Amino acid sequence: MNKKRLVIIIITLALMGGLYYLITLRQSENNLPKDAENTTYEENEEEKKKPDIAVGEAAPNFTLKNLDEKEVSLKDYRGKIVLINFWATWCKYCDIEMPDLQKLDKENEDLVVLAVDVQESKETVKNYIEKGGYDFEVVLDEEGEVAKMYLASAFPTSYFVDKDGTLLGGIPGMMEYAQMKKILESIRANE
Q1: pTM
Q2: SS3 sequence, 160-183?
Q3: Transmembrane ranges (predicted)?
Q4: How far apart are the C-alpha atoms of 5 and 131, rounded to whole Å?
């Protein structure tokens, strides 16, 4: 079995664990009493319009503002490997992971770390990033819509996208530098 297939299988298994969690959560929401539901027909129609996320398919594009108020889109990084990292400043494991993301971003010219902060104020995120001395790209998912689109149910959650924009898979939970580097090397070996 070649390395790319092995990486895709590992990432797919991790993604399936996250999907299982989401399905379980959705089932528990469906068991609420009828008077507790706030769902309307329009919300259901809107949910149907959200793109499907599938390993081996094009990663859903998104556009968010960075800390300098400039719009940044995933498609801006075609030609590079992208590590999309969903995180929050209050997340202990995100905090532990950040220096490794910084190191990976600095050491690899063919990689972009795209850190998507979920539902926090620009000021909170900016202070955190400045205090940590991080300089990878940070964008703000103020409404949490991109996190929902990518089924990020816990933080941190990371996804890998190849140079052509294909979603290779995701890892729910914190990664260490060695794990990130191994996945990156496997992606490169199978380009």
Answers
A1: 0.75
A2: EECCCCEEEEEEECCCCHHHHHHH
A3: 6-23
A4: 39
